[in-house]
Amino acid sequence: MSLDRRDFLKIGGLMACGTALTTAVPIVSAMTEANETRADAGNQWAMVVDITKCPPDCTACYDACRKENNVPHFAEPALDIHWIRKVTFKQKGVPGAEERNMPVMCFHCEHPPCAHVCPVAATFKRKDGIVLVDKHRCIGCRYCMIACPYKARSFVSKHVEHQPGDNPDVPIRMHGVVEKCELCVHRIDKGLEPACVEACKAQGGGMVFGNLNNPDSEVSKIVRSGKATRLRADLGTNPRVFYVGI
Question: What is the pTM of this model?
Answer without folding.
Answer: 0.80
